[in-house]
UniProtKB/TrEMBL annotation:
Keyword Membrane belongs to the record: yes
Organism encoding this protein: Thiosulfativibrio zosterae
Presence of the UniProt keyword Ion transport in the record: no
Record key words, sorted: Membrane, Transmembrane, Transmembrane helix
This protein's name: Cytochrome b6
Lineage of the organism: Bacteria, Pseudomonadati, Pseudomonadota, Gammaproteobacteria, Thiotrichales
Any Pfam family: DUF2189
Transmembrane regions: 50-69, 75-96, 117-138, 172-199, 225-253
Length: 270
């Protein structure tokens, strides 16, 4: 647990290890600056940006074409990717950190950026895995609520459009989106500064980092809500373009999220 002491624009967090972290209040205008800084990072690290963007783009396309006749599974797996995105962006956070320090980022090093703090990264991955496991159990329950047996009459050859044009499919999608928004909002709240914090400070544990992430989000409810909507809109763009837009969206959001973390959290050196 941590103790928080607030002033008008800053909040002091005292961790169990005695470390001092200061969180700052953000402004709505900061969101545009985070994105601009992310765009500049893409220009300074084109190779790494293309690599991570391509991985996500190919993943989205693979999910779509693998489950084109199974819309239920398609929506479930797509949500898994969204929930895991904070962890998948670890390499991008590392690249942004290297650029910030004036170093030439190494793609190979970014792939193992979690290694210095592997135990805490693993714990955070387990936490996200639990959320995904719960969501995996909820999805068939949603289908049951909307009498998913009627989905069996949808022509499999019609694929996604056949599903979306059916009454049962639309009902499922409405309930599914409500649940997905709640799940992703929860993941966003506990992860918005977690992985950048674990990268920057090996003295912070995963549970402590998630608590601080929640506290920082609550301290900036309005700005964080708009930031979450911005992230959601860009990720949605990546999904509806069958992954093509992810070539830009994934690195842009990864780098921008690092700059958001830098504005929101300051680690006081002892």
């Amino acid at each position: 647990m941590s103790t928080t002491v607030s002033t008008s624009h800053t909040h002091l967090h005292l961790t169990e290890s005695g470390e001092h972290l200061v969180s700052h209040d953000a402004k709505y205008s900061d969101i545009g600056r985070w994105l601009r800084q992310g765009w500049m990072d893409m220009a300074h690290a084109p190779g790494a940006s293309l690599f991570y963007g391509s991985i996500m783009a190919l993943s989205v396309a693979l999910v779509y074409f693998s489950f084109i006749a199974e819309p239920l599974m398609m929506f479930k797996v797509a949500t898994f990717f969204v929930l895991l995105s904070p962890f998948l962006a670890t390499g991008l956070y590392y690249v942004a950190q290297q650029l910030e320090q004036g170093k030439q980022p190494s793609l190979s090093a970014s792939l193992v950026a979690w290694r210095p703090n592997v135990g805490e990264f693993a714990l955070f991955a387990v936490a996200l895995g639990l959320v995904i496991a719960i969501w995996a159990r909820i999805t068939p329950m949603i289908a049951a609520v909307v009498k998913s047996n009627s989905l069996l009459i949808v022509d499999p050859n019609a694929g996604l459009m056949g599903f979306l044009s059916s009454d049962a499919g639309l009902s499922f999608l409405a309930y599914f989106m409500i649940g997905a928004v709640i799940a992703t909002a929860f993941v966003f709240t506990i992860s918005v500064v977690t992985i950048p914090l674990l990268l920057r400070d090996n003295n912070i544990g995963a549970v402590q980092a998630m608590i601080i992430s929640f506290q920082v989000t609550m301290e900036n409810k309005g700005v964080m809500a708009v930031w979450a909507l911005t992230v959601g809109a860009l990720v949605t763009l990546g999904l509806v373009t069958f992954g093509l837009a992810m070539l830009i969206v994934m690195p842009l959001l990864g780098y921008a999220s690092w700059h958001a973390f830098n504005d929101l959290v300051e680690i006081k050196e002892s």
